[in-house]
Amino acid sequence: MLKDTIIKRRTVRRFTDEKMPLETLKELLMYASMAPSNANAHPVEFIVVSEKEDFTYLAAMDRFGAKHLADAPLAVLIVANKDVCKYWVQEAAMTTAYLDLLVQEEGYQAGYLPFHDNTTDKNEDAEAYVRDYFNIPDNYGTLGILSIGKKDERVRTRKEFPIDEKIHENRF
Ligand SMILES: Cc1cc2nc3c(=O)[nH]c(=O)nc-3n(C[C@H](O)[C@H](O)[C@H](O)COP(=O)(O)O)c2cc1C
């Protein structure tokens, strides 16, 4: 049930060595790709990362919040073709949110790290840090990365979420 999946989903940064099978991931990516898309353009594509040396590179990007990627068993870089859709950031974000929930529903957990609009601690463009390394073409944007696996940390279950002060009826 979707509400149950949403309430149970928490960010996980430490994973066991167990890898989600590639076939399972491919199926989830297919469902995530069914997120809404302007003019049915579907500009979002994925780079599946599974090599230790690639995680070592990602974790070395010198940014607080990236170090945990060193030990991730699997991750997905979310990229999108800017030429076919000017809303690529929104498209990639919706797809990522779908994927995050699909991962949770499949019995795995995930953690997100943004590259778009983000910098390394040395103030370098975080997107540029991954573009060359992963051969991402210049006309593609990289929204971020979702690391995926079985949690190896305690995750607190969410009980309730205060919402009343965030809802404005008819006017802000
Ligand atoms: C736009 C965005 C940027 C985020 N940046 C990071 C990050 O740099 N490092 C990290 O470990 N988690 C990052 N996260 C995950 C958040 O830290 C996490 O969602 C937040 O702590 C709430 O926890 P929850 O996902 O368990 O509800 C980011 C999430 C979003 C949506």
From TrEMBL:
One of its GO terms (molecular function) is oxidoreductase activity. Residues 7-53 form the Nitroreductase domain. InterPro entries: Nitroreductase, Nitroreductase-like. It comes from Urinicoccus massiliensis. Keywords: Ligase, Oxidoreductase. This is F420-0--gamma-glutamyl ligase. The lineage of its organism: Bacteria, Bacillati, Bacillota, Tissierellia, Tissierellales. Belongs to the nitroreductase family.
